[in-house]
Batch of 2 targets.
Target 1
Amino acid sequence: MTLSLSDPTWYPIASSDDLPFRHVYQGQLLGRELAVWRADDGNVNVWENRCLHRGVRLSIGINEGGELKCQYHGWRYANRSAGCTYIPAHPADAPARRIQNRTYPVREAYGLIWSAANDEQAFRPFAGAEGHDWFALRPMPVNAAPEDVLAALAGLAPDDQPADLLPGLAVRFGGTWYFVQPVDAGRAVIRGLLREQPADAVATLRHYNETLSKLRDRLERAAARKPAPEPLQPTFEKLSADLATMPDIAIPRGNTITVVVRRKWTSADGVIGFELAARNGHLPTFQPGAHIDLHLPNGMTRQYSITNGPGELMSYIIGVKQESASKGGSKVLVETVREGDLLSISEPRNNFPLRRDAVRTVLIAGGIGITPLLSMARFLDKSALPYELHYFTRAGEQVAFRGDLEALHGKVILHTGLPRAEIGTTIASALGQWSMAQHVYVCGPGPMLETVRDTATAQGWPEESIHFEYFRNDKVIDNSSAFDVELARSAMTLHVPSGKTIMEVMRDAGLTVPSSCEQGACGTCLTTVIEGEVDHQDVYLNRSEKASNTCMMTCVSRAKSARLVLDI
Amino acid sequence: MPSIDPITRDLWQVIAATDEVPVGLVEITTLLDVRLALTRDNDGNPVVWRRTDEEQGDEIDPETVLDRLPVITGYGYIWTSLGTPPKELFPIPEYAEADRKNMSCGSIGLAVSAPRAVENFLDMGHFPYVHTDILGAEPHTEVKEYDVEVSEERDEVLATRCKFIQPRAAKSATEAMEVEYVYRVPHPFCSVLYKSCPEDENRRDVIAIFLQPMTEERCRAHLLQSMIDSTSTITDLRRFQQTIFGQDKPILENQYPKRLPLDPRAETPIRADKSAIAYRRWLSQKGITYGVIPMAS
């Protein structure tokens, strides 16, 4: 038998006991090295043992519970997806591109961790697996060809009780099952299971260890007399071409994903929680502060922040404000969508990235604005980074996600029913004076954002330390101007008349223009400006970005000059 | 035996610190998969040849060694070549300044290719994680924009305006400071770093790393410091640099593949890696194949 890199058989690669709390185990299978780690939610990850950045083994990384952190540059990868969530060298940017490590299938069963080189075969329990309380023996590594190890194990069977050879390099006699983990062409690990718990575990382990040690010595003596087999030559997959180029800050344009509404509940007075689950497997990687576009049954699209913590990818939890006078988006969701319904969402996008390099992080939420900040608090919480979360609501019963907030270890302060004037002074004292490496994140109603921005500025907080996300643009859009836009890459000049947006004119000309909120709030249509003076009307860009005159939102913003040249 | 590309063959390659090679006794080493022996004659001049049956520590009369490899000394080290080397070593003019403390800081074996070690030397992003509380510390993890160019005139990679906040940038530093670095890569396996000097704001400390490619996946790092430091002893300065390098070693030895992949699609670059990207391209354009995984043509 020759080993193959593409062998789809499931083999045991570790004992369950090899994966204690926050540990990373170095596994091996078919010539490949694996980083094996258990997240705090119990999920076991089996990844290629290599950081995608500079090839350092992830098995020397740090298990942070929901993310694995590389030792070399602190890149973090999410539980389940192995998607990169944070690059400390560029703390203000969301890793926009889809940097995702290679994952292998995994199953934990009978005291062992099982994996396979690919997912061509579904995991099937070995014959006779069910209905027993399995006891895992200590693994015995052997420097010999896996097939020789299997043959030698079969030879251990007593004469009157011949061994059963089982599929997948396994053998059984009596109540003992042996599995040979093919590490490489000339290396194997024997993993044994007993069908029931022995009366004296230590004596039993010792007995088997002695037997298997003798077997190993015999096998290794024999192997030394034979020519060493050629090791398997696994290759690393190439990155996608777009990952290989030097990245600018870019907004990923993802596919849509169908999710099922697993749970819908009243999280607080006026806030409905929705749990949106993947139909199979897990959902894509997201970063704290990210949102999804939710495509509603009536054709509308709305943005909702993900409230989840690190590595929680089995479902996204969002909060929807139930507005009595609401038309459109949230009304449809709240009134017509039911548990079990299918909805279409975008891949997560992040216009509100969280820096994890702050000495102090202040999170300020107003009402439904708690949703992205809850996610941020959970990420900071898991990494034991300091933060203060201030949550303003009109009344105590309007506090959404109360149970989740109570589970946090950081400083969570609820401010309920404060009169308007007091909100200002509370924000002022919550912020305090700025010092280096302090950041504030705010999400809530427009006036509250303005208060935080103004107060912070007055108290010495520089613009780059104030981070905010608007739900919507409350400004009245002035669309009276008329001007020309020259699209540099499309080699096209279009006239934008008063009453029409740049985006509408581009669409009329047959261009596909990504957009989402179409009110200058979400950042989807961010476009680079090459020439001309922009009349900014959005709430997405900050003051210095607007002043730089190098980018704009084509859904609402216009030109002050007669002509704009855009990088489209 | 792997083939040695002609560029690598004709370069000067470092093999030992001059004053660590005893007069009349054999030292052995490996360069580009070739076993070498070396010694110094009575005048202290190094003699290098292809090793046959000599052993480390053998007594030898250097006069009897006839088939010698080219030798040059510079920056405290002995350099040789398996081909036809240039007249001179690349310049480090600061080395000649009278008031500097020049010192070799040891030769450290690394189970990784020489270009991987060069790239690590050029990298600032790992300071907070690998050299925690010395060259960097969380939360100051940001690598700000810097400039990189390949100087055609001098045929070297040059990175300037590199800035990083460091808790203890040098032996003589007492508090955190934003240090400015300039990196030069004047030789495919050597790099020179200039960093702001805590003692004199108008001058720069110089730290250089000279990699001896022993095999494609193994090298020795020879370190040079040329410092403006009136208080620290040479032992202190050496210890500081060895601490730093001792922190890099385990990370470098856990890098896979051990040879530096030159295909842009092998590993994920970020903006902070501009100098590494330029270095990989420069190696590729020069036609270096030793210690790298060349781009599939």
Target 2
Amino acid sequence: MSVVQANMHPLDNYLRTERLPHVWCSGCGIGTVLGAYLRAMKNIGMDPEKTIMVSGIGCTGRAAGYVKMDSFHTTHGRPIPFAVGIKAARPDLNVTVFSGDGDLFAIGGNHIIHAARRNADITVITINNFIYGMTGGQLAPTTPETGITTTSPYGNVESPFNLAGLVAVSGASYVARWTSLHVRRLEKSIEKALKKRGFSFVEVLSPCPTAYGRRNRMRDPVDMLKYFQEHAVVKHHINPLEGVIEPDKDFIVGEFLDAEEEPTFEDKLWEMTKKEFLYTSQAERTAWILEHRRHLETLSKIISGRGER
Amino acid sequence: MKVEVLEGHHFLSGDVAVAEGAIAAGCRFFAGYPITPSSEVAERMSRRLPEVGGIFIQMEDELASMAALLGASWGGKKSMTATSGPGFSLMMENYGLGMMTETPCVIVNVQRAGPSTGLPTLVGQGDVMQARWGSHGPYETIALSPESPQECFDMAVRAFNFSEKYRIPVVVLMDESVGHLFERVSIPPKSEIEVIDRKISTDKKRHIYEPDDDLIPPMPPVGEGFGIHVTGLTHDERGYPVITAEAQEKLVRRLVDKIRVHADEIIDYEEFMTEDADVIVIAYGISARSARRAVIMAREKGIKAGMLRLKVIWPFPSKKLRELVEKASHFVVAEINNGQILVEVERAIRKEAVFVGKMGGEPHRPDEVLKGIEEAVK
């Protein structure tokens, strides 16, 4: 059977086109971000056959089901430890976690800080839509204060997480935040994140008109993009603590952290299996560990804006 | 001295023996979280795995450990974790994902007394039903129960072989007494240990979950262009989610049947003095050692007693019990819980058995089991 290729989308080779249409609502930003991710992959020539996508549960978690590469749709909150396991077993493969804010920062919150601390060589893309979309619009750890959700009908009284800030101070090697409106800069950041050896993280603020916007005076999909346009301030290498997002106020997007590459978790795990490491004295092993340790004091200067770049 | 697989005679605890058995079976990935009384398994693995080219990771919790195990298994490594009741509870989430995605791996549960934190350092056997039904939904499980450090070694090998052959997470259901028991362990030369590896798919056109005649699909490797999709959602043979009752019936029926049709190959038990027995004690793990002594004491008193020791707890040997009930009149169950295998035994023999239970904290004394035997024949 011959197939006419004229109508192919430039990303069709990266998508399981037989699974389309996807589950995402109109006005949702996930497709925009997935597009940016796949273009970034294509731009840097990353081989989809050597790339694994792992996702958790939720709207964003469905992304793994649409990409034409080895992909795993795991349990709620656990894509990161699953990815840590697969990357440790196969350090030669590129491993990306693509999941939502609830999945990675509420139920899976413990795992992301530990994967960042270990400098596991994985890339994590988090879509932050301020809400639990798949289950119908419940309170997320990112819902802004006062936000109306189906489980905060009187307004959210909790403070939301500053995702990029949290990951930056946990020991990541690369951290950025954009919105689904900043498509080109997002794409560039994802390229950097994919190329970075070590733990890289990109947070993307993204509209959910169906479950969030509808209840929070941004009913039309364009309303939230307008909100992003009006309030996003591009700033790089800020103190991550300045990355808080407050209702109706300006918030910062940009590159939070771009640290120098240091040995990854997997580098160290595999070094331990070598004879040169095992068949030596503890003094020499200690020396090797110190020589290859991460320079978190430098990291701390960078993230507090005092370090040289 | 660095050795790949231990050989010869060693004086080992059950926890150490199960670790060595895993290495002999080809285990090259361990992810775990410290918990009494299983921590010695992790400690041994952290020392030994790098020596054999394997990876050890102490994860942030048991949820993560179990997830990492599945990831590493898809990455091609034979993977294991070790835990105890509270950690086993947390692992139930991805135990289910392992069932649904048919991911080989081994979970060692060195049981302590519960519920909750219970008696961290003291024996229990209360996780038998959790191993069977702990994760939600219908599935079949494989669980082995060693009674000695020797069997911890042997059963670790068998657990890996079952998990690789049937593509299923397998539980080694130890208990604290066996885990901390030191005994002689004789390990045959490496060449004499039978090691089974998973079937690997070589055909990129073949659907990921298209089973062979044995109902088990070969496992594709990652990073080789197979473009697999693996999901915990109900899926078709392509691995794609299908949210219908028909897809659920087809998939889960096969997951259940792939173990049921092979149950006779998996089931294993020891019969001790059962040929002419009038009363039969059913026991496993450390309780079987007390029961064996009790059977001898009963015989000395002129009671024709015997023991059926479950080496494999799940699948449960119902057929064997129905056979025994034809010959023996009385049944006694000795276990360190409130009656878990008791329910299975009574279901199989279709009558009541005398229950010699303990809530945990210490193994049975032989005379406690003997009292049960005497009560049964009274």
